[in-house]
Every structure is written in C-alpha cells, then in structure tokens.
Q: What sequence folds into this?
C-alpha cells in the first residue's frame, strides 16, 4: 500500500479496492509488528507446542524439538522464551494453581480494538476454540462468527487441538462465503491461531489476521458470548458418552436452533439467517 501511495494512488482508493477500512491500516502504520517480533512469535509457538506434547521436557529438549520443525534458536533463547511464559518442566519449578500461563506474542496487529462492528457480510469475523469432556475424552470446537449477522460461517470439530482445527474452520468458512478477500479475522493469542499453517490459510484466502495484544477476555467478548450460549444450551445440559454424540448435538444446535430459531435483539428480533437474507437483498438493491 505504501508503494501504491508513492505512485500517486490514494490510500482511500486502495483500501476500497482491497475492501479494507482505513482506520485499521493507519493504526498498523503507526505501530506495526516488526520482523523480530514475528520470528519471536514463531519460536514461542514451536516451543509451546513441544511443551504441550511433552511437559516433562526442559528448555534444551524443547529447543531441539523446535529446531526439528524449522525454528532454529540457541538454548539460551529457548530458556528466555520459556521462562518469560512460565513453560516449566513438569519435573522442575512448581507453579501456584492458575499461575504462570501467559499468552504468546501476537503474529498479527490488533485491527479491531474491541470495536465489534461490521456494515456488511465478510468484513469482520471472530474466531475462538472451546472444549468439553466426553466419556471418550475431550472434544474441541473452533468456530468463526461473522460480526455483521452473528452467523457461524465456519466451524471445525476434532479430538485434538492442533493447528489443523483452525485451518479447517477457515477453509470451511471461505468455501461457504465465497468472496472473502480483505475480511479481517480476529482471534486471541492461542498457539493454534499463531501457527504458520493458520497464517498461510488466511493468506491463501486473501484474508487479514488480527490479534489482541493483551490477554483479556474483552478482546474477543463477542465470540465468548456465543460459546456461553453453547455451554448453557448444549454442553452442560447432560453428560456425553461419546465424541460423536456431542459432535452431532453441537452441529444440530448451531444449524437448527442458533441460526434459524434464536432471535436476537441487535438484529431487530430476527435470526441470523433471516437478517442476512433481508440485508443481502437490501445491499444488492442499494448497489
């Protein structure tokens, strides 16, 4: 965009063509993420994945695992990153309950700043991951919500919380919505959203990542409200013997109840599907 502006093309025109708002661009221009911060984020992500898979490993073994997946660093660098984030070996330092867990560094700028507003579909999406126990073990759900209508435009359900959970949700949402170029996808700083695979998935669909710089619930409050409804209406209603049983219940509630029966005050007492149908016709006529 800087190069185009240097060639005499106004930023306003470029933003309109790319379907980007000017304010987030200027915020990024004033405080961009440096290459060093991006490298640090990828290193931290690799160390965290290794720590989660083998919590007994110390920083040297974690550094070895990170190097195996292409994130080269010295043992000293690995020690600094793991120490700053509180990722200790299970045989090393003891942590107080609930302490020592720290979100990793962001790989995207915060383009949302808690302003969860969109004037058209596919302008701003929110995404997050939730989990629930079954008799067979945990089941993980990554959901993506369009702020415009509140509709869940994509989701992925799996028995493991890996980066593919996020990638599948992004791919499903892009396939459903079609023209998603320029859409801002806002998430928290979980390692799955900071992974190279997730970043490549956004680039593949020409979408723009956004990530809160502080580990506060308010940074993704609009997505948390959906998960709260899911928790109350599905997850906590009963115990679930199998993952498939819970998977079917989640999909049924999203597609049948949340999308087509649950009316929302902010949508004028319409359901997400009704609101999108009505507003899409209105926007088409206005165009």
A:
């Amino acid at each position: 965009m800087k190069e185009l502006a240097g060639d005499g093309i106004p930023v306003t025109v470029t933003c309109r063509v790319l379907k980007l708002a000017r304010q987030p661009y200027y915020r990024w221009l004033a405080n961009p993420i440096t290459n060093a911060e991006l490298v640090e984020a990828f290193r931290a992500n690799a160390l965290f994945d290794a720590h989660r898979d083998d919590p007994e490993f110390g920083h040297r073994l974690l550094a070895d695992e990170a190097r195996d997946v292409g994130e080269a660093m010295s043992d000293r660098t690995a020690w600094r990153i793991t120490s700053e984030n509180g990722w200790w070996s299970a045989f090393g330092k003891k942590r107080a309950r609930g302490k020592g867990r720290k979100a990793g560094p962001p790989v995207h700028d915060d383009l949302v700043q808690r302003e969860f507003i969109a004037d058209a579909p596919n302008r701003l999406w929110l995404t997050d991951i939730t989990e629930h126990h079954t008799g067979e073990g945990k089941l993980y759900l990554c959901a993506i919500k369009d702020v415009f209508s509140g509709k869940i435009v994509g989701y992925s359900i799996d028995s493991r919380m890996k980066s593919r959970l996020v990638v599948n949700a992004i791919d499903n949402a892009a396939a459903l919505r079609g023209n998603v170029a320029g859409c801002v996808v806002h998430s928290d700083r979980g390692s799955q959203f900071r992974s190279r695979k997730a970043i490549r998935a956004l680039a593949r669909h020409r979408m723009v990542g956004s990530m809160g710089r502080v580990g506060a619930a308010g940074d993704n409050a609009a997505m948390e409200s959906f998960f709260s409804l899911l928790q109350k209406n599905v997850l906590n209603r009963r115990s679930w013997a199998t993952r498939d049983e819970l998977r079917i219940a989640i999909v049924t509630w999203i597609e049948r109840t949340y999308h087509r029966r649950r009316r929302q005050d902010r949508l004028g007492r319409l359901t997400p599907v009704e609101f999108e149908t009505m507003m899409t016709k209105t926007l088409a006529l206005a165009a």
